[in-house]
Amino acid sequence: MIQTGDLRAGNYVKTVLVNSQGKKEKKILLLSARLIAEIEAGKREVWPIELMDAWLLRFGFTFNESFHHFLLTPAWLIHEKEGWYFMQSSVRLNRYAILYVHQFQNMFYAFTGEDLLLRK
Q1: Which one of 9, 77, 95, 112 is most buried, by most CB atoms within 10 A?
Q2: Within 13 Å of residue 62, how many CA atoms lie on the same side as its CB?
Q3: pTM for this one?
């Protein structure tokens, strides 16, 4: 489970919903303030989504050898054993590894002031 203090409207997370046949299905949610309030009230459970190459490509990043370019600044993203790091001139910009999509979205927002959403 994720602490609601780590979530923002616009974050992607996983949840389980019951479909019309009564079967549980895993779904990806795009959070709104209303959904975050439901999570805080214990009415909805959500889980983090592991950050993988496929998500970065869906966000519009491009692959170049062993790292993904961060298109809006002179920084880039690399994957190390512990997780993902934003780098600039061989210096890590984040102290702790990014492991999940919502963490990546929040860090992107902290750097740019813009929400990071999926590209069509």
Answers
A1: 77
A2: 3
A3: 0.87
CB-based contacts of 112, cutoff 8 Å, min separation 6: 72, 73
* 90's tokens: 């061989």
Residue 115 amino acid letter: D
- The pairs formed by 69-73 with CB atoms below 8 angstroms and a separation of 24 or more are 70/111, 72/111, 72/112, 72/114, 73/111, 73/112
Compute the Cα dihedral for 109, 7, 47, 87 and give only its sign: positive
Tokens of 55: 């998500």
8-state DSSP, 103: H
**Structure letter (DSSP) for residue 101:** H
Condensed to tens digits (0 to 9), the pLDDT of residues 95-116 reads 999 999 999 999 989 888 888 8
* Ranges of the chain with pLDDT below 50: none
Instruction: Quickly count: other Cβ atoms within 10 Å of residue 112's Cβ.
Output: 13
**Tokens 């997370």 sit on residue:** 13
